[in-house]
Amino acid sequence: MAIRAALAVHPGSGHGAAARAVDAVVARIRPAVDDLTVVSADTVAESRALMERAKDAGLDVVIVLGGDGSAHQGVQFCAENDVALAVIPAGTGNDLARALGLPGEPVPAAEVVAKALTDGTRRSIDLGRLDGGPWFASVLCAGFDSAVNERVNRMRWPHGRRRYDLAIVAELAALRHRPLVVDTGDERLELDATMVAIGNTAFYGGGIPVCPGADPADGLLEVTVVGAASRVDLLRILPTLRTGDHVRHPFVRTLRARRVELGPDNGWVSYADGERLGPLPVAVDCVPGALTVVG
After folding, report:
1. What SS3 class is residue 294?
2. Is 174 exposed, middle or buried (0-12, 13-18, 19+ CB in 10 A)?
3. Spatial separation of the C-alpha atoms in residues 253 and 233, rounded to whole Å
4. What CA–CA distance (Å, rounded) separates 228 from 187?
């Protein structure tokens, strides 16, 4: 079967990493497909318009060269149009590529994707979806971690994981607990909380396994809830975030569910795949097998 692919390049991703890698990535991908259209987009609107035009030409695969925000746009398009998605990481966090088991650099990841295209290797994964809203592939968060995201998005230095680390330290100084309700239908938690994360996959924030048991092929979401932790508690938990051992702390609860409702309107803003979505309340469903991925 002929493969028609579009390579969606987001040149600004990774402070120009995507732009620097594009020629090498194209050289790896082109021999693996019958037709390759390379499109470059600097904004969300431009990215969506380019993908729509590529779809009209008869598209089988969208290959995103960029970061998690770029991948998030690819997820929206592919889930809505029954088109397969491949991700080649060239951003700051690259959490979806990490969850899919891809190398962390663009060229090695492109080689893996090219081989999968040649071999016809594809698989289905679940997605999270907000009621009446967007899809997400990785983690939706609110509270302390979304405040960290807000700060990270305002920072211009440093790059990579260190930016998240510094934002975490800065947000500790402004720590405030808020009332939170987590309702899965089977369980209902009402508590003062520091943060909540709903994971379709394990990682956010550049490799933090906030929902370490999340599996994008089990039809369930994993929920991590941190109660009214003090600054001292959070300082104790920070070293365990990179290993997933934070779930062992007594003020951390984990749940698994097909649907999760978060409320009330407590001033928290929700993020998913590193993208700002909006304030609570939100309701999220796991949609099994919603996305086909390559590589």
Report:
1. strand
2. exposed
3. 15
4. 19
**Mind listing the pLDDT tens digit for each residue in 203-220?**
998 899 999 999 999 999
- Helices of type H across 83-210: 95-99, 106-119, 144-154, 161-172
How far lies 52's CA from each of 47, 83, 170, in Å? 9, 11, 40
- Provide the 10 A C-beta neighbour count for residue 217: 12
The parts of the chain modelled with pLDDT lower than 50 are none
Of residues 158, 152, 251, 156, the one with CA closest to residue 204:
152
With contact defined as beta carbons under 8 Å apart, do 210 and 241 qualify? yes
What secondary structure letter does DSSP report for 204? B
What is the DSSP secondary structure assignment for residue 281, as one 8-state letter? Answer: P
**pLDDT computed for residue 93 by the predictor:** 86
Which stretch of DSSP H or E encloses residue 130?
strand 122-130
The pLDDT, as a whole number, for residue 48 is: 67
CA atoms within 13 A on the CB side of 82: 1
Q: What is the CA radius of gyration of the chain?
A: 19
Contacts within 8 Å (CB) and 24+ apart, 36-40: 36/5, 36/6, 36/7, 37/4, 37/5, 37/6, 37/7, 38/6, 38/7, 38/9, 39/6, 39/7, 39/8, 39/9, 40/9, 40/10, 40/11
User: ω before 279 within 30° of 0 (cis)?
Assistant: no
What pLDDT, on the 0 to 100 scale, is given for residue 176? 86
Tokens at 292, concatenated: 């086909």
What is the per-residue DSSP string for 212-268? TT--TTSS-EEEEEEES--HHHHHHHHHHHTTTGGGGSTTEEEEEESEEEEE---S-
Query: DSSP string spanning 38-96?
Result: EEE-SSHHHHHHHHHHHHHTT-SEEEEEE-HHHHHHHHHHHHHHT-EEEEEE-SS--HH
- Nearest of 133, 151, 150, 159 to residue 72 by alpha carbon: 133
